[in-house]
């Protein structure tokens, strides 16, 4: 007999709107105290920045209405803008023609083969996740363009490890949704 349980789960926006996504473009509007350069160089303007306090206020406002805010830093795609502050962590930054290297312009995505980039990304995600009361945090994990990793630096790293780019992607895909215990 259905439903099996007398309760169910519903997703309800505060004002019956579709789910809000603050960004799915090549910009970084979140001003994290541990990574101030990202918003300084990656937001559309200084007026287009969410401070840590702004995020906490949004989360509090939503929480008072029974709504859980799921934060996301979409990786490895949608990260081209990181090259403005940390170019060493981005492969194929602003390569042309962009359509050969990315789902949307400009091209550039996290260097999946770099230990330094893995550490940088883990620190970035941790800093953002600490703002949230949610038990989950999303890291996207889509829009990987393999052509972006045909550069000499990436190919050298792959040859040294003997790992393919598909196998190397596993570190990103394992981040897609984090849960706290």
UniProtKB/TrEMBL annotation:
SUPFAM superfamilies linked: (Trans)glycosidases
GO annotations of cellular component type: membrane
One Pfam family recorded for the sequence: Glyco_hydro_20
InterPro entries in the record: Beta_hexosaminidase_sua/sub, GH, Glyco_hydro_20_cat
Source taxon at top rank: Eukaryota
A GO term, aspect molecular function: beta-N-acetylhexosaminidase activity
EC number: 3.2.1.52
Keyword field: Hydrolase, Signal
Domain Glycoside hydrolase family 20 catalytic: start-end pairs: 24-166
Reaction equations catalysed: Hydrolysis of terminal non-reducing N-acetyl-D-hexosamine residues in N-acetyl-beta-D-hexosaminides
Active-site residues annotated for this sequence: 143 (proton donor)
Enzyme's top EC category: hydrolase
GO biological process: carbohydrate metabolic process; glycosaminoglycan metabolic process
Record-stated family: Belongs to the glycosyl hydrolase 20 family.
Entry protein name: beta-N-acetylhexosaminidase
Organism: Pyrrhoderma noxium
Lineage summary: Eukaryota, Fungi, Dikarya, Basidiomycota, Agaricomycotina
